[in-house]
Structure formats: structure tokens, C-alpha cells
Amino acid sequence: MYTTIPETKARNLKEIEKPAVSVTVLIFSINKGKLEIVLVKRVRTPFMDFLSIPGDIISIDQDLEDAARKVLSDKTGIHDVYLEQLYTFGDPRRDPRGRVLTVAYFALLPHNSVDLSKAPDALHASFVSVDGLPKLAFDHNQIVDYGVERVKGKIEYSNIAHGLLPEKFRLSELQKIYEIILGKNLDKRNFRKKIAALNLVEPTKEVYREGNHRPATLYKFKSKDLVIYD
Amino acid sequence: MYTTIPETKARNLKEIEKPAVSVTVLIFSINKGKLEIVLVKRVRTPFMDFLSIPGDIISIDQDLEDAARKVLSDKTGIHDVYLEQLYTFGDPRRDPRGRVLTVAYFALLPHNSVDLSKAPDALHASFVSVDGLPKLAFDHNQIVDYGVERVKGKIEYSNIAHGLLPEKFRLSELQKIYEIILGKNLDKRNFRKKIAALNLVEPTKEVYREGNHRPATLYKFKSKDLVIYD
DNA sequence: TGAATAGTGTCTTTCAGACAATATGCC
DNA sequence: GGCATATTGTCTGAAAGACACTATTCA
User: Fold this and answer.
1) H or E stretch including B97?
2) How many A/B residue pairs have CB atoms within 8 Å?
């Protein structure tokens, strides 16, 4: 008996009972000094009235990432943002209706680029701070926690913060992003030294004026693609 | 129309056509100075006679990690080793027979603990060096590459090397593991300094004697669990 | 000129990397 | 004594962290 890759059972792929597969998309943004995610209030059982992470069942011929991008654009109207696969959650009892695996993704977006009220399918959707979340539907608290940890770990050695900022930004805004995600205050001089050493951003010729004080130089990222550094 | 988590389509979960889901397990070990993985020669179409990564279709009520552990123990006879989810590969065309998602896992084991010839289902299975692999079945080259990168990245800031070593080992063996995975030679003094600073291993009272030279102190890991350090 | 944020440099400590001599056990 | 691997410390350069003052704009 040879049980190699889809072998024994693969002969009757169409006969065996299969799990359903969904994608779940953590849509992160920063607003009012907090890391937030898009959550949707459920209007059906199970977990009626609980908040849940947006997602959808994938269809038989749909690519996973395409499915995740569709969820993202349906909920936010946004297309071109960084999207990364997070983890696949497969506990057989995670959905009381039956077996549903979910492949979780996360996206990062600048808060001012999103207007949920204008998105194609954002009814009952809103940004919620990840601090002190209530009990969510299904195993969604676990998924959020996992996603927050990934973002936290990754911001220290990549340029993913760029997803959370507009095209042009002040260094103080960038620092604030790091502080919120890492959950601690950073020294302004050391932060700027480090950012300069990483060579990820460059100044534009524009400045940002607000209030009765010195204007700030606006910077932009040199690369829009993900950069991982050691 | 509310498309929240498995909502619209979830109403008829049993009617929609679902992808099959498999697990794929990269079983790494180090032998003769090379990083190797267990591969299985396929005896059926598609990809007849190609090498492939061991795996299996999961059944409707089977937990993902349980399925991966079953593949691992069927192929190697080994149960208690570190197993980590790697990534989920979902290209709709990755299997010519139909839609099959695969959730890839990887395991690390000490080579001397495995005797494939005695495993429950190791027919056509063997350890193969990850260097210069031929074209494998399906998208398995991509999966191996992804796994190798993960192991490489992780060895620098965790104790996963411990999975590749026997209970007790020489520091020179540990160093060799690092050199093989990182693909470069390390300075013995600096390596030992770093390992000492990490405080992950401790000397036993045993020594290893071989050949006409000074015996080496045997060490063991303080924790069998995964430890991640910054 | 007062208020508020922008912007900058030095010192110290820590960590990584280059580098070589001595120790021990077996034959 | 010869051989083979084990074991150990110093110096240097780079990066991280502590720390405070000046610059600029606007009201």
C-alpha cells in the first residue's frame, strides 16, 4: 500500500467528503494612536451579533490570494496593498456548522485611504482597536492575536510600516507607527539614526505645516515592495 | 447582501463544490554534511516516477496537525518531534487531477534516530539532499525551497537546531549543523561565545571519545520546547 | 517672544567578527 | 612525542541605547 502524495485517496478525489475552505483577512490600520482591524458584525447564526473577521468561502477554482484580495476590496474598496498569508487554522470544531478550514491573510492600510461607508460590501463593518477586543465569533480572537504578533515581529526587520502610511509622511508619523505597534516609546534621535541607516526612505521637497510650529519635511519610501533586512 | 465569514455561501455549505485539502510534510535531517529531506518516488500518474514530498489528503474530521503527524510517523516511525506549519499552497492548477490545496508542514529530526526501512509506510521513501534536487512532482520544488528558507531564517534566532541533534551532542556537532544550514563556515570561538551567551545548552558530565585526540564534552539543550530569541 | 514640533551629535555599552595558542587524550 | 580535535581570550569596528539642546514657524 503506497500512501504517497494524494495517492490512495486521490483515486477517488470526487468521492471523499471534503472540508470547506475559507479565507479570512485581517485588515490592519492605525487610527487615533491605536492599531485597529476591520471587523464585521454577524447577522446570522452561529455567533449572531458577534464581531468577526471578514472572510469568505473559496470556490473550487479560485486562487487563495485572489479570494483574499476580493474580501479586502469588497470590504474596503482597496486593491493594491501588501497582503501576506498568515496561517491556516484547521481545528475540526472551529465552525459549528461543519468543517471549515480557514487560510488567514493580513493586509496593512493607511487609515485615511479607507472609507468603509463607500466600500462595495462594508455593511456592518468597522474598524475596531485590537486592544481589549470582546469575544469574537469562531476562533477569531486567536487569529487576531496571531496576526498582531506577526506584524509586531515583522516591523523590526522589514519595511511593512510603509503599508500603514500615506505616500508622503513625516518622520514623526513613522515613529508613531513603530511606537504603537511595538507598544513602547522610542527615542527620536535614535529612531531617526536607525531609519537613516536602513536607507528605506528619502525626503521629498514638500513640507507639512500644521499649528504654530516648525513644519516637518515629508518623506517617502524608496521601495513600495516588501524589503526584509537582517 | 451580507458576505461576512462563511455566510452567503455557508447556507449551503454542503452544496458547493469544495477543493480537496492535503497536508505535505517536509522531513528534514542532516546526514553526511548535507541537509536532506524525505522524498517518495511516485508510482502512479500524474508525475509517475518523480520524487515528491510525503503527504496525504485529510479527511473531513481530521485536524491538520494530526494529519501531518500521521504522515510523519507513517514515513519515519517517529512521533515526538518539532513540527511547524509552513505555508498553504493553493494555486488552482497545482494538481492536474483537480483542485487540491496543500498545507505544508516541516519537521526536523536527528538522522540517527530514523530507520526508514522500519517505518510503517516508507516504501519508495528515502532521504535526499536538498542541494541540486531534480524536478519534483507538482509544485514540490517550490515547497522545498520555501521550507529551506524558513529553516535557514529560524536557526539564527531560535533553538530549532535541537531537533536535528541527538539528546547529547558535542559543540562541534552543533556548529556543524549551523554551518550546513547557513551554508557558510563559522569561527569556532565566536560560535561558542554566542551559544554560551544564549544560554540554551548546558554541559553534561559525559564526554565523547573517538580517535586519538582529546574527548569532547557532551552538551544537551536546556529546553526541548521551541525558544525564540531576538 | 512664547508655544510647539522639527531636527541634530556625543558618549557609552553591547554585540559581531577577525584572529592563534594551549589542552588533552590516544597511539 | 606526534597527531587530532577540544577549548579558551583579546582586540576592533559597528550598532544600539542613553541623553539635551538648537531651529523654525506661527500666533
Assistant:
1) none
2) 175
